[in-house]
Amino acid sequence: VNQNYNNGWVFNTAQDFTWTGATSTAWNTSTNWSGNAVPSTDDVAIITNGTNNPVISSAVSVRGITLASDFIGTLTQGATASVNIGRFGLHVAGGTYTGSAADVTIAGPFFQSGGTINDGSGTISVSGFTEKTGGTLTLDSGNFKLNGSDFEQNVNFGQVQAFNKLIINNTNNTLHLLDYGVTATDLEVKA
């Protein structure tokens, strides 16, 4: 109940929408999602096994994306389809995420416990924590940007991680690379 004492409060209005793929592969088709609505900036998209595998063919902004552990298909990012993921972040436990020339911006955490991520030639930019405990992370085509300018950033890839280009852009905070090292064909550090 709003008694005019909660000015400036932010309430969690996120809803979870689960991919069914009932109609087609098109991300932006409402009948491919539970609740017959396409996830938006306040929502979390959960990708499980549906009739069709999802394809993002135009720009998408959501609060979060989860590739569920039982997902065995592929989420494909179209060549010009930028993906903006909010504070809930990207969670990959199963399936495959195939990137493209378009960018992926993650304002929250990036967690991978399974599945496969194949980058495209675009930039994957992460502002939150990064932790990889399982799966395959292939970052040999595009840029991977640690963009912790607003937050302290802990990064743990669970192994020595190879990059095509690693960009470290932690201008106001501390970056912690935990346990393992990185190798990069190209390294850019902005302080």
What can be said about this structure in brief?
Helices cover 0% and strands 42% of the residues. With 191 residues, it is mainly beta.
Q: What attributes characterize this protein structure?
A:
191 residues; mainly beta; 13-stranded parallel β-sheet; 0% helix; 42% strand
How would you characterize the overall build of this protein?
By secondary structure, this protein is mainly β. 0% of the residues lie in helices and 42% in strands. It has no helices and 18 strands. The protein has strands at residues 16-18, 44-47, 55-56, 60-67, 74-77, 83-92, 96-98, 104-106, 110-112, 116-118, 123-126, 130-132, 136-138, 143-146, 153-156, 161-168, 175-177, 182-189. The radius of gyration is 17 Å and the shape is globular. The mean pLDDT is 89.
Q: What is the strand and helix layout of this fold?
A:
Elements: E1 16-18, E2 44-47, E3 55-56, E4 60-67, E5 74-77, E6 83-92, E7 96-98, E8 104-106, E9 110-112, E10 116-118, E11 123-126, E12 130-132, E13 136-138, E14 143-146, E15 153-156, E16 161-168, E17 175-177, E18 182-189
Parallel strand pairs: 1-2, 2-4, 3-5, 4-6, 5-7, 6-8, 6-9, 7-10, 8-11, 9-12, 10-13, 11-14, 12-15, 14-16, 15-17, 16-18
Rg, rounded, reads: 17 Å
| Secondary structure: helix percent | under 10%
Provide the residue-averaged pLDDT. 89
**Rough outline:** globular
Provide the succession of SSEs. EEEEEEEEEEEEEEEEEE
**End-to-end C-alpha gap:** 45 Å
Query: The biggest beta sheet, please?
Result: 13 strands, parallel
Low-confidence stretches: none
| Proportion of residues in β-strands | 35-45%
Based on helices, strands and strand pairing, what is the structural class?
Answer: mainly beta
Number of strands: 18
What's the total helix number?
0
